Amino acid sequence: VQLVESGGDLVQPGGSLRLSCVVSGTIFSFYSWGWFRQAPGQQRELVAHITDNGTANHEDYVKGRFTISRDNDKRTVFLQLNNLRPEDTARYFCNRVKTTAPVRPWPYTSWGQGTHNTVWG
Asked: Which of 20, 59, 62, 83 is a good FRET partner for 11, with 20 to 30 A between their CA atoms?
């Protein structure tokens, strides 16, 4: 599976971004997909995930501000980030996820380069 994330930028608090993750090497529509983030010195954490049938789920710390979506035709998963805060500064990654609790990446999965967001100002 190849994952190419993009859309990260330097934004001021309260700003917005839209992240994209283009997927290849697998049947995109069969799987659930998640966005994760990793801040400097922190562990990678789940931000949101979307199931194969389009049901979106967001972690409490981004609920109401971030929105995950998917386009099966484009093999792309999106993350809309609104009302950004300095604590949202991190590198953001997408990956295929298993949705039996806890939601987690598939075993032996590889990661893309991610895309970096800095919220500053």
From this structure: 59
Overall size of the chain counted in residues: 121
Instruction: Report how far residue 55's alpha carbon sits from residue 107's, in angstroms, rounded to the nearest whole number.
Output: 22
The radius of gyration of the chain's CA atoms, rounded to the nearest angstrom, is 13
For 90, other C-beta atoms within 10 Å of its C-beta total 22
Which amino acid would we find at residue 78? F
pLDDT tens digits for range 30-82: 999 999 999 999 999 999 999 999 999 999 999 999 999 999 999 999 999 99
Give dist(CA 80, CA 66) in Å, integer: 5
Start-to-end C-alpha separation, the chain: 37
